[in-house]
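Q:
Just now I want nothing more than another pair of eyes on a protein record. Here is the record:
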Amino acid sequence: MTSPVIPLRWLDDAAPAELPDGATFGVPVPRGSVGSASELSLAADGSAVPAQFWPLATWPDGSVKWAGVAVGAGSFDGASIAVGENPAPEAPVAVSSSPESVTVSNGLLEIVVPRTGARLFSSLSRGGTVVAENGRLVSALADGPSPRDARTDFTGVVDSVTVEQTGPIRAVVRVDGHHVAGDRERLPFRVRLVVLAGADSVRLVHTFTWDADANTEFLAALGVTADVPLRAESHDRHVRFATADGGVFAEAVRGITGLRRDPGSEVREAQIAGRATPPVAEWDARTSTRIHWIPEWDDYSLTQLTADGYEIRKRTASATNAGRAWIRGAAGTRAEGLVSLSDPRGGFGIGVRGFWQSHPGQLDVRGASLPSASVTAWLYSPEAAPMDMRFYHDGLGQDGYADELDALEITYEDYEPGFGDPHGIARTHELTLFAWDATPTRAALATRAALVQQPALPQATPEHIASCGVFGDWALVDRSTPIKSEIEDSLDLLLSFYLSQPEQRRWYGFWDYGDVMHAYDFDRHTWRYDVGGYAWDNSELSPDLWLWYSYLRTGRADVFRFAEAMTRHTGEVDVYHLGRFKGLGSRHNVQHWGCSAKQLRISTPAYRRFYHYLTADERVGDLLDELRDSDETFLGLDPTRKVRPDAATYRADRNAVAVGLGTDWSALAATWLADWERTGNERSRDRLLGTMADIGALPQGFLTGEALYDLDTGRFATDRDRISVSHLSAVFGLVEICSEVISLVDIPSFTEAWVQYCSLFLASPEAQEAAVGQALTGIHLEQAHSRLTAYAAVARDDEGLRELAWHAFDGMGEWLLHRNELRIDRIDVPAVPAPVDEMPTVSTNDAAQYGLAAIQMLALLGDQVDELASK
């Protein structure tokens, strides 16, 4: 095998000044070059850096395709990965297990995870000093959506603990459980605790799944909390909140500045800095003898109930526990989501990534004057109104599917009674637990808060990723000719517009952050947030793919983070993880779960694999695993039940399930491919390769449109001889998956079936009839399909197909974006509540498919586009 060299870069280009939390990421490895991930090593500036490697995916020949990489705390630049010796860290991560608990230590901190009970961790220590204990999950469900409705408190209870990695650089402990109140069990959760060598922090990835009844149960609170032992006097105890734009709110529990009598400059300076003050006996006696009159501020809260405003309040202790009035301490815009409580011997902090973006959130300190206080990060603030997830309208007429289909003609809403149900959707948060050895300085806290929000992330260079041939047809940015420059400019303009929209339109909130809207209302100058199926996009026509391919070819950090937020959202909120719709996703709607079209085209791993492989994120790996048997969903719900010509008589037969060869098979193929390359699962391999061969054996190949699938054998019957095409078949990942699997395995009949489909979809009716005996109907989205024609042109080396592909991309059919006609208009007040940008004629369907068509056109025909444009 040829030894590869994998050059690395930092996502944000410049190397971070420090890497206190370490980093985890993924890199592609050239096919056939490395047999085992353990052969790899990391070097920076010519010196070996201790790192941990593991396989994320393999090529069909068994060689490593993607490797996960972990590095501990420290700093490095100019790094690359190659085959070589991997040095051991000075203080490796160690995991020890007993029947009662799992303990992880890295020489700096130690965390103990009980196997049973109501604690995520029993203790977190730094240098032998316990800085937090009794870490746990807490929640509340209300009986109604009003703040006045009764609430029931729940506590997270552990069902199982699994050690997933044991070091020497990275250890991962997975905790699964559910929330309990009496005999009620709700909100199953999965938490991963990640410890890296040399880090003074623990990464906590928290996922919960909504399994309550949206009509009678309303989420009133959800949080992570821990007790914090305190050993110093209250004037040496310090509360810190990271506020906005690098700001820090920093106060002592008992403040000794601003008093009528001055304790002395040395005392004041020490308290402001967060250091231990001199002994009280050394203070000015006019202060020291009256210290008992200075209030102790026991409780602090930072609430972020909207994306645009936080407030910090505090109150004094009450001897009767009756409570005191809250006093406002500060207010501002967007808090960075980190809270800390400490004294000179140590302390504890929690940071929440995407804190203000996923509002309503809250950070609490309670009992700061007591020997043991608590710190809580509320992922859903108890001060917000209980979450109302009921379906947003009463439904349609009583004539079943007829009325539901008729509604599509006006609000584009696919409604069906009982289907607008959130039961089974999920939400993932990323948190960081900090184990301080003393009170952090303001500057240090601000730095750590910034890293919580934008973790330092090594990445392989775009050039290296492209050279590995992963993810199908794409190429690096190239402005070497006038037409290429025009196309690149149009891609930049579309990205710029969409990157601006979450901020301008405030696409934030607990369930919404990460998604974009589907279509625009130019009369109201707003996205159609309240119009049926035109509201939240839910991956319709693959914006996820557009963003990820845009990142691969540019390496842009802003595009990566946009795609990252979308992956977190669409893979969790838009997909069902338990219940009757498990494995399916919901089509676009006013509510993410509102549409009755529950389909694999939304849950497809084609949208999630990028993030998993680029970051080695285990939670997205869970999402891929969940879909392993998603072909079984066709027994529970027919995705074409409302439009099937034989709807009155069709009944799913386990051994002859009707499966579409477009949106359905592409999702299944992506599922099987991901499972095969990640786990080596032969069942998934055989179903992928078998159905590819079966499609190739169908008389009309992909043009058949739908084939009968045997769930037990994982194969299609090959005797169906008909022609039926849809403009939607290829725009949910089919193009990309077909290109990728053809590059991985050699099944000539499948390749020919795909090339035939690609060559005929936009062909003239006469050419279609000459080839298959009839003209194709249902031909739309011509510009989007230009990349299919380009693929066929390359496969057949056909000049006529090249010209047709360019004609389709450059100006054929409806739903067309032309690169030279794109513009951004500014709409000012009072026409809108606040100034916004809009892009005339653009919808997310258009943007995503134009983006993908342009990227793949440049990859396939890039050297010829100027010549084609001149004809």
